[in-house]
């Protein structure tokens, strides 16, 4: 724990009363990270099937049967698409993110009471423009807000300064929409008006007009606004009774940081 003056000596643009210093926290290039995992998996003889969608599943003779089609045949509609392939794997891990609940509901034989409700919270980022150099050297996290970590600042590996993500609860019309990922990932420039006061709580010298819309992402939540934040849900046969099926729900942040630990847990427990 640092006193405010100690933290502000390290980061002169920062304003705070106290701070927690985490000297070993950092960032990774997420794209390179996932690509390197793909490379390692392929070296260990894994096969990836891109542009392929799992339409549904059925439990038959103690095995999950998956019905699979090409994504192209599926993008604009959902019903009436005929499976091109039936797979009977030893282990199925439903890690479909935003579509995990919608997919689980298409697994005949999995009782719906094991499928948590779905809630969605968009998180938008704004980037800092016009600064000669990044105002901060370290990542700065304010006090968390409901549904998210608070509008924090990240300096990515290319030196781009990003603020976000905020929390915007959004509706998803129905399971088909989440199954097809029909979410709006647009960043409304007017949301900047909410960012300025949030950021100025810890970076008072943020200049008017310096924020530009960046990217957004959507959190697959299992509790809604006003409810207590939930942990990840990992369910195997011992919970839902379906042999050879593991379901992952609510894998929101820090799901990427936790991905190797989750994979290790699944491998130890279910393989
Ligand atoms: C704004 C934001 C900021 C975040 N920041 C961080 C952070 O700083 N640190 C961190 O650790 N985590 C962070 N996260 C969380 C992290 O991105 C997720 O936890 C992680 O991506 C979850 O990985 P996943 O593989 O479970 O799901 P996803 O990455 O959502 O992947 C699911 C995959 O399943 C596929 N799929 C869906 N349905 C089907 C189907 N029927 N058939 C076939 N494929 C299907 C999808 O196309 C997708 O490729 C953040 C998330 C958001 C939204």
TrEMBL record:
<feature type="domain" description="FAD dependent oxidoreductase">
    <location>
        <begin position="2"/>
        <end position="268"/>
    </location>
</feature>
<keyword id="KW-0274">FAD</keyword>
<dbReference type="Pfam" id="PF01266">
    <property type="entry name" value="DAO"/>
</dbReference>
<keyword id="KW-0560">Oxidoreductase</keyword>
<keyword id="KW-0285">Flavoprotein</keyword>
<protein>
    <recommendedName>
        <fullName>L-2-hydroxyglutarate dehydrogenase, mitochondrial</fullName>
        <ecNumber>1.1.99.2</ecNumber>
    </recommendedName>
</protein>
<comment type="similarity">
    <text>Belongs to the L2HGDH family.</text>
</comment>
<dbReference type="InterPro" id="IPR006076">
    <property type="entry name" value="FAD-dep_OxRdtase"/>
</dbReference>
<dbReference type="GO" id="GO:0047545">
    <property type="term" value="F:(S)-2-hydroxyglutarate dehydrogenase activity"/>
</dbReference>
<dbReference type="InterPro" id="IPR036188">
    <property type="entry name" value="FAD/NAD-bd_sf"/>
</dbReference>
């Amino acid at each position: 724990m640092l006193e405010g003056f100690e933290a502000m000596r390290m980061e002169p643009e920062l304003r705070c009363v106290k701070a927690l210093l985490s000297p070993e926290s950092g960032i990774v290039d997420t794209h390179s990270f996932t690509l390197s995992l793909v490379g390692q998996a392929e070296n260990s003889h894994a096969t990836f099937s891109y542009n392929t969608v799992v339409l549904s599943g059925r439990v038959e003779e103690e095995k999950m049967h998956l019905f699979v089609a090409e994504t192209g045949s599926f993008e604009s509609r959902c019903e009436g698409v005929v499976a091109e392939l039936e797979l009977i794997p030893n282990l199925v891990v439903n890690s479909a993110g935003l579509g995990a609940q919608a997919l689980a509901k298409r697994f005949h034989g999995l009782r719906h009471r094991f499928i948590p409700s779905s809630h969605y919270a968009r998180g938008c980022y704004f980037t800092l423009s016009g600064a000669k150099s990044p105002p901060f050297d370290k990542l700065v996290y304010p006090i968390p807000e409901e549904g998210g970590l608070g509008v924090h600042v990240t300096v990515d590996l290319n030196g781009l300064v990003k603020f976000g993500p905020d929390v915007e609860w959004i509706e998803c019309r129905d399971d088909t929409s989440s199954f097809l990922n029909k979410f709006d990932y647009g960043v409304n420039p007017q949301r900047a008006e909410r960012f300025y006061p949030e950021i100025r709580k810890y970076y008072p010298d943020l200049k008017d007009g310096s924020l530009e819309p960046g990217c957004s992402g959507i959190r697959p939540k299992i509790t809604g606004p006003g409810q207590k934040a939930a942990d990840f849900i990992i369910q195997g046969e011992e919970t839902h009774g379906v042999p050879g099926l593991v379901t992952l729900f609510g894998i929101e942040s820090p799901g990427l940081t936790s991905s190797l630990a989750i994979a290790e847990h699944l491998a130890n427990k279910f393989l």
